[in-house]
């Protein structure tokens, strides 16, 4: 239990998902650096237009530049307090036949981010010092304007907010005053994947909302740790049959209910191993996938012949998107289209995600996926994928409504901005950003008067076929 509580924060911050766009029949990706030696084909300057990134790759490592309408500046080295998406770096690349383009990946199995080779670093990069208050403001405003995908969905007139805020910003106004202006511009965005983190006058701050109703209520009452402990104790002592298994670095709990219903709860899409391997590395990705496969092979093998399986994502906080798709592959009888994703707001998908049945243990009988407004990010991607299967029913409450991988855009003064830039769309054209994915069967999962017992009641109703 202690491992679960101390390690959960890092895993909850994880949401790695590379952007698509490779040509047909792309070459197999290979390491940028192998045993510290740079692959010569990867050396040079590369630009990803949709993300506003320029990377310089050399024998001494990778330098990332933020190419914004307000100017181009180098990203400061990642600090220990920076979220994981600001720390992970590409490890693999796939050069295209023309050698002028390549696809880069964070981890094996990701889709690739398309980059175009440049002859040299553009002269605009590093040309201006943008770390003043007015410089930071103009970068912040232009980055949000260029990359944020959901102003219309969330009812925000960004141009008007920028116009109202600009006269309030002057050089020399100080960090705290600038923070307050930027915070006012984000007010009401209600997007948990958009956040501003930094230090102002020596004090750390984090500007983020969109946490749904359940988590703020829990934080204001019992606190999150006692609540999670109560949920796990209740499951193991009162809901599941004897012999349940809490495993994968305390991220997955599985067992049976009434000996005829299989049950598997997944807290995060990753964080399954804790052996000192750096998160975001290729070795870490391989170990995460292996750990996931081992648990699901054991659990689904034990569920063979049962009446149904409940996949509980009602407390899933996201993570590695490949794991989200792997969950769906464990319940598929044939290859299916799960969703599409658009990264450049042109209305056309950059990638169509198809999921093939897993080679490991599978369960293709009746499945119920349980969600709540805590379910977010990779948990929502798994839910969206599972809903496309004919044997799956969705129960519980609507998900959070924050799908996009956070686009990391560190600001020139060392503050850190993440924002939602990707549009995930169901095969029928539905987009569930902001609204969340509504269930087929509505059940209270974490009601205000019973946030622990209500979860048990929902599971028992599903297991009873109600």
TrEMBL record:
Coiled coil: none
InterPro entries hit by this protein: ClpP/crotonase-like_dom_sf, Tail-specific_protease
Signal peptide: 1-20
Tail specific protease domain ranges (all copies): 248-444
Keywords recorded for this protein, A-Z: Signal
Annotated organism of origin: Glycocaulis albus
Lineage, top ranks: Bacteria, Pseudomonadati, Pseudomonadota, Alphaproteobacteria, Maricaulales
UniProt protein name: Peptidase
């Amino acid at each position: 239990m202690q491992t679960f509580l101390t390690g959960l924060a890092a895993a909850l911050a994880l949401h790695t998902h590379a952007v698509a766009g490779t040509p047909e029949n792309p070459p197999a990706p290979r390491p940028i650096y192998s045993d510290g030696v740079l692959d010569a084909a990867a050396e040079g300057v590369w630009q990803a237009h949709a993300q506003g990134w320029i990377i310089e790759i050399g024998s001494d490592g990778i330098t990332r530049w933020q190419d914004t309408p307000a100017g181009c500046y180098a990203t400061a080295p990642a600090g220990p307090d920076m979220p994981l998406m600001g720390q992970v770096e590409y490890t693999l690349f796939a050069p295209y036949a023309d050698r002028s383009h390549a696809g880069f990946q964070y981890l094996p199995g990701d889709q690739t981010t398309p980059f175009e080779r440049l002859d040299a670093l553009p002269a605009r990069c590093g040309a201006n010092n943008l770390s003043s208050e007015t410089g930071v403001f103009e970068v912040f405003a232009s980055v949000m304007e260029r990359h944020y995908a959901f102003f219309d969905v969330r009812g925000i007139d960004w141009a008007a907010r920028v116009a109202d805020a600009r006269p309030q910003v002057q050089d020399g106004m100080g960090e705290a005053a600038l923070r307050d202006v930027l915070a006012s511009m984000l007010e009401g965005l209600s997007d948990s994947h958009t956040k501003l983190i930094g230090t102002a006058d020596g004090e750390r701050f984090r500007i983020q909302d969109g946490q749904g109703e359940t988590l703020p209520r829990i934080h204001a009452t019992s606190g999150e740790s006692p609540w999670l402990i109560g949920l796990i104790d209740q499951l193991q002592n009162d809901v599941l049959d004897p012999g349940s298994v809490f495993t994968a670095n305390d991220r997955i709990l599985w067992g049976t209910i009434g000996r005829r219903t299989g049950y598997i709860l997944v807290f995060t899409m990753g964080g399954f191993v804790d052996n000192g391997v750096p998160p975001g590395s290729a070795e870490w990705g391989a170990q995460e996938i292996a750990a996931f496969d081992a648990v699901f092979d054991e659990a689904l093998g034990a569920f063979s012949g049962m009446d149904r399986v409940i996949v509980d994502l009602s407390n899933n906080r996201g993570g590695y998107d490949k794991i989200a798709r792997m969950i769906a592959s464990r319940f598929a009888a044939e290859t299916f289209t799960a969703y599409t994703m658009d990264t450049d707001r042109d209305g056309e998908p950059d990638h169509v995600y198809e999921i093939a049945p897993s080679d490991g243990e599978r369960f293709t009988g009746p499945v119920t996926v349980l969600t709540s407004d805590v379910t977010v990010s990779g948990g929502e991607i798994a839910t969206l994928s599972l809903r496309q299967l004919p044997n799956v029913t969705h129960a519980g409450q609507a998900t959070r409504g924050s799908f996009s991988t956070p686009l990391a855009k560190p600001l020139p003064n060392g503050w850190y901005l993440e924002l939602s830039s990707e549009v995930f769309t169901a095969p029928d054209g539905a987009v569930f950003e902001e609204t969340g994915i509504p269930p087929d069967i509505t059940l209270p999962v974490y009601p205000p008067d019973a946030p622990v017992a209500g979860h048990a009641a929902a599971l028992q109703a599903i297991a009873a076929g109600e």
